[in-house]
Amino acid sequence: MKTMISLRKHRYVARISLFLVTLALIGGIVGCGQYTAPVSYTLIIDTTAGGSVNTPGGGNFTYGNGTVVNLVAAPTNGYLFACWTGDIDTISNVNAPTTSITMSNNYSITANFVKRYGLAAGEKHTVGLRSSGTVLAMGDTSYRQCDLDSWTYVFQVAAGKYHTVGLKSDVTVVAIGMNWSGQCAVDDWTDIIQVAAGGLETVGLKSDGTVVAAGDNTSGQRDVGNWTHIIQVAAGGGHTIGLNLDGTVVAVGDNTSGQCDVGNWTDIVQVAAGGLHTVGLKGDGTVVAVGDNSSGQCDVGNWTGIVQVAAGGLHTVGLKSDGTMVAVGSNAYGQSDVSGRTDIVYVAAGSFHTVGLKSDGTVVALGWNLYGQCEVGDWDLG
Question: Which domains are delineated in the chain?
Fold first, then answer.
């Protein structure tokens, strides 16, 4: 009997031991899970000039793995949202101001904005964009380049030698005027965020940073198919300029006067293209220029405090931070007589005339006026 009781005790102890070992193993497995730290990632959000990110804001944010973060970018008055750049692999739509990003790594992204262009000057005509999205024009209309009464929902305007281009709010493009080289063949363009017009060429910047062009290609000015990361374009007499996101500049086309020799430029925030010269505004408010200098149009080395530049046929205009203008180059028609003009917020330069937009929406113009291109005194673009 004692032997049987002892055997039962041993079996009971063995079962208890096995149960305890099992509990310990389960506890160990559960315990290992408790020591796994949750994964989190950092999202850095930045913006270019001209807008802000309202959701979630600008700066550094921390989110758990797999979190879907809503992004809402908002341009300020006078600017248009362009695209998101940076670590964009998990952004739903890089071209939309309202989108989302899924956190699966550390990301740094930038919301890019481009300036609205409300004033343009061509060879013999001037174009103004009202805040309502309708367009005014004065000057030569022999190629119907001033027949813009039917244009609506326009966000930017550009003027070439004998044609006019408009960027519509749905990011399509319209053009009218001389079309001998196909410079007005832009009806199929989409997803455009900026337009420029040269002598016989039209250039469009797409929201993905690539560039399209139509019109004359005699000097290779339309050879922009391999450009990427562009944030602004400009078109001259026979050359095309692109401003890269990193502040460097690219150029194609006619280089007979060295107007495309911009490969060493850095810290550029805006570019302009004239007849045979190119102008760049640097981040510190100084200006550089290359190309034909027969009229002194490249003598901008002593300019400071500049916030915008424009290039005409043989002259260059700079807008200063205090709302005044400076100009160098040809003054055969008084196009460089800009001293005394105040309260200017935007400037444009045609072949032989200069136009300035004032803060109250009125416009001033000086220079060659044979075709009435300077008769803008009654304009109100506000």
Answer: 40-114 (no CATH), 116-367 (2.130.10.30)
